[in-house]
């Protein structure tokens, strides 16, 4: 019993330290009470969580279209962006009742989840408990995680759970006597798919690489590896049916606009300069790579395989790789958008091999003490830089005419001092969305014009111009103030007045499953057309008009 308690104690200590570091990281937002980090991704994700919040509040569950968020445009968003997590965040927003409290709590949950999951990964990799702690703090203070804290990039949320999948890959290649635990693999991959599909796709590619290595290098239990991996994959497919089935059906029924391909992939690689990328942690992770490469004759072939794989992925995530040329050659790569999304996997592998190398070095007592002191200084510096950058960026919320946006944004009252801050501080969580909108065209019904404007092979300047055209078109069609909208009895109710009977473009996305009741008469599919920006075009009558919008999902609908 004493042995078990002694073994458990360091693990519990590590957990408490991770939680404490999480509190330190978010402390700037605690002390700057009410201040938010608001960038274009913040507007996007808070808006979609507002939609599920309202669904819970009104007991009106609509998993396929946005009835409250994104200006009640009836468009696909949450159904293709992790619906279960969207509802969990909507529930959290419902409980907290404040965007400030919500951002504070989610920041803490993402940062600590990253640290705890990295602890687990390093435990699977058989790193000693004390070293696990420093490696985990290094990861949770890296830009892979701070991408969420500073910019609300959902890559940070995916990166927080990526260590679970990397742990599966590490087990495959380092423990041939039991290369796969079915429950571990199912839980890890299922969680990541439910949280962030792109992170899951990249992590599954990593698993395919480690699986291939294990199949060809393992001399025992190869049959077990194949059988258990197949079983785990089958269970995972069943558990993630809510992700892949709607995607297959909805994209088969409708031609949808893909997320806008970024103007310059090369410009969105790991930035080796500038505070926002948290250079201290990046240098420390690079130090792990240098340690791995420099120290000879301590690592086995498996550790070397993982280490060099991590270095290759780090190079791919950096500006050293000619991404622009590759994107133009292989257009399917544009789904990646930002090459730095590869960084979390590289960071985790390099942290693992760096600390494994350190663990295998035969040090004297004095040497071990020096190493521990150096590691403590290292993590303190990374924590302090993270807190410093967060504090500086968070303080911008105090500007009278706060302008934290990057990219295209609509702000109706941009000239009214502190109007935006007041709207986000209001107990009425709908207020911000009456003032601001992100005119993003992701997954709207595609028209020839929109397809032309999202051509990934266009020059960076042309893409920038096209992006502005898309934003202007979205604003014109979907933010049209001529129409009034309400949500009643499970319908989006749109009302307006027109002087003569003629076709009118509603600020409602037109999908195959969208249903319309105009002035108490159900419209047939032939009575609706797809107009500009994928909006619905119907024939309005002279005078007042009312159309009720609902949605029906079906394989043949």
Question: What does this protein look like?
Answer:
- This protein is of the alpha+beta class.
- It has helices spanning 2-31, 40-58, 83-96, 99-124, 129-140, 143-151, 155-174, 182-195, 197-217, 222-239, 241-253, 279-294, 301-317, 323-329, 343-360, 365-394, 419-425, 431-435, 448-453, 460-478; strands spanning 410-411, 436-437, 484-488, 491-498, 502-509, 514-518, 521-522, 529-530, 535-540, 543-551.
- The strands form 3 sheets. The protein has a 5-stranded antiparallel sheet with strand order 3-4-10-6-7, with no helix packed on it. A 3-stranded antiparallel sheet has the order 5-9-8, with no helix packed on it.
- The longest helix is centred in the first third of the chain and has 30 residues, at 2-31.
Features:
five-stranded antiparallel beta sheet, disordered N terminus, alpha+beta, 557 residues, single chain, 9% strand
Topology:
Blueprint: H1 2-31, H2 40-58, H3 83-96, H4 99-124, H5 129-140, H6 143-151, H7 155-174, H8 182-195, H9 197-217, H10 222-239, H11 241-253, H12 279-294, H13 301-317, H14 323-329, H15 343-360, H16 365-394, E1 410-411, H17 419-425, H18 431-435, E2 436-437, H19 448-453, H20 460-478, E3 484-488, E4 491-498, E5 502-509, E6 514-518, E7 521-522, E8 529-530, E9 535-540, E10 543-551
Antiparallel strand pairs: 1-2, 3-4, 4-10, 5-9, 6-7, 6-10, 8-9
